[in-house]
Amino acid sequence: MVRKLLAVCLIWLVFGANLVLAAENVVIKGSTTVLPIAQAALEVYMKAHPGVNISLSAGGSGDGIKALIDKSTDIANSSREIKDKEITLARAHGVEPVAHTVAIDAIVPIVHPKSKVNGLTIDQLSQIYQGKITNWKEVGGDNLTIVVVSRDSSSGTFESWGHLVLNNARVTPKAQLQASSGAVVQAVSKNRYAIGYIGLGYLNTSVKGLTVNGITASAKTALSKEYPVSRPLYMYTNGQPTGEVANFIKFVLSPAGQKLVATEGFVPVAGEAKENPLNKGKKR
Amino acid sequence: MSRHLKETIIRGIFALFAFASVLILALIVMFLFREGLPIFKEVSVADFLFGQEWYPTYDPPAYGIWPLIFGSVIVTVFSCLIAVPLGVLSAVYVSEIAPASIKDITKSIIELLAGIPSVVLGFFGMVVVAPFLQDTFDLPTGLNIVNASVILAIMAIPTISSISEDALYAVPSEFKEASYALGATKYETITNVIMPAALSGISTAVILGMARAIGETMVVLMVAGGAAAVPESIFDSVRPMPASIAAEMGEAPFGSGHYHALFAIGIVLFFLTLFFNLIADYISQKFKEVGSATL
Questions:
Q1: Which of A37, A178, B227, B242 could form a disulfide with B217 if both were Cys (CB 3.0 to 4.6 A apart)?
Q2: Interface TM-score (ipTM) > 0.95
């Protein structure tokens, strides 16, 4: 699969390079979680800089870092920190990976506003999503069956949730599937049996966000890494970026770029854009 | 240009249009198989069809679509249980019983029902039917088999009703007249003469209605709940095949096992609808009423 993907990228590169011979090319590869941010940013960026051609593909964080090491990409998107092994390998290839934190991915478990439950531990969440805890009374709620609402298995939120909460154990097959974060909010807001999870940016007053291990999810706790279901999202470059690559990353970190980050449901890492949809969540 | 040549050219153009759809279908089927078959290098056909676990994005992945097939079949069967009596009986009423003024109104309203976009019906199921079911039966979730079946039935009724109606109209009036002449009442005429004579057409209508329900995507994506497990009760959530394809295709990496598996689900759906169409065709050929009773 990886080889096929690489082949597709290669064809796309050759093809793309022919089309815009004179223009600047930036190649971005890596994490599917970071994909929506990169996608939104490059659309705006390319509109503002007509000469620049940015190609983007997502095959996972590992693929992105691999591509950075063999110099087939300018930017490697990653939803995890680069491993020591990868750094060693990169240095052997004359590549010096530099991390740029572009956003924080914080995911909040949500329940119906009338639920008695206010918080759960990571372990309880994991048990619920694996189908091992099936009644709310086991975690301090009413005597109601738990209806587990999950995202479709290809979404980045699903992947992050699986990684941070379930430790990659399988979600129960009885979990309901919703195709978007908006649909999860809709389903949970109408169902006092349900539990769901969404990116912090999607939290609103129609549902109740739960604390995890006693910590309320907010931009602040996510940034300070107190909130456990959060992780920074990175863009890795080879050395300090120059030229268009540097401009692009500067754009992602600018207030305009960080606003896009918030629109996509992530927590911005820098500057004024922090407000946006997050305030809604604090009012609840 | 001679008339003969003109005739030939026109005939050619018509043939071209006729074959265009055949060609398009052939290309789609080819594409479907080209993208779907590679999954069987990773998993056997039996494991794919009858596997209980659908975890396409995990490592190692599990590509069993039995819960999805089961979900599709069960919502289709239940929707037919609702739609067939409603569709067929409304067709009988419209074509045989209703006075002309009511007939026109009822007929156009049933046809209007066919024009409602499925996403609107799905939304209706999500925000109206689901809370209603949940409150009435005190269920954990209103997004379940019953909800999906009701909404699919609403979608299948116009198909079943209008094709049945055509079949009922096609019954020669001599049949009815002969029945009345023998002293039969209207009810006896409908049940003993008209219905049996139109049976092949009605069966075709039912099967085409089923094919419509099994292929419907938006409704089942929105109201069936989407649990990829074989249900234990009719109030459990299911994830029919089209819902799985629609929800997951967007982000399945191109050329991955998951991608091929979704296309393979498409192949299964293709065969199911093909099967339904063949049955419909067979019935309409086999049980065709021939002959007439004129003097």
A1: B242
A2: no
Question: What mean pLDDT is reported for chain A?
Answer: 83
| Domain boundaries, position A117 | 106-223
Work out the pLDDT band at B291, boundaries 50, 70, 90: low
Contact A176 B237 (CB under 8 A): yes
Task: Dump pLDDT digits (tens) for B69-96.
Answer: 999 999 999 999 999 999 999 999 999 8
Is the pLDDT confidence value at A86 over 90?
no
Q: Which of A171, A197, A223 is the C-terminal boundary of a domain?
A: A223
**pLDDT at residue A82, rounded to an integer:** 86
Q: What is the pTM of this model?
A: 0.75
CB atoms within 10 A of CB B93: 16
Count of alpha carbons within 13 angstroms of residue A61, beta-carbon side: 19
Q: pLDDT at residue A79 above 80?
A: yes
With a cut of 80, say whether residue A153 has pLDDT above it: no
Handedness of CA B156, B157, B163, B164 (dihedral sign): positive
DSSP character at residue B129: I
Sign of CA dihedral A129, A130, A134, A138: negative
Query: Residue A173: which of B53, B143, B258 has the nearest Cβ?
Result: B53
Question: How many domains does chain A contain in total?
Answer: 2
Residues A187, A154 share a domain: yes
Please judge whether B130 and A144 are an interchain contact, meaning their C-beta atoms are less than 8 angstroms apart.
Answer: no
Interface residues of chain B, partner chain A, Cβ below 8 Å? 53-59, 67, 126-127, 130-131, 134, 140-143, 221, 225-229, 236-237, 239, 243, 246-248, 250-258
Q: Give B217-282 as a DSSP string.
A: -HHHHHHSB---S--SSTTS-B--HHHHHHHHHTTSPTTSHHHHHHHHHHHHHHHHHHHHHHHHHH
Can you tell me the distance from the alpha carbon of A212 to that of A201, in angstroms, rounded to the nearest whole number? Answer: 17
How far apart, in whole angstroms, are the C-alpha atoms of residue A65 and residue A55?
A: 16
Q: By the 8 A CB rule, do A97 and A234 touch? A: no
Output the domain CATH number for residue A176.
3.40.190.10
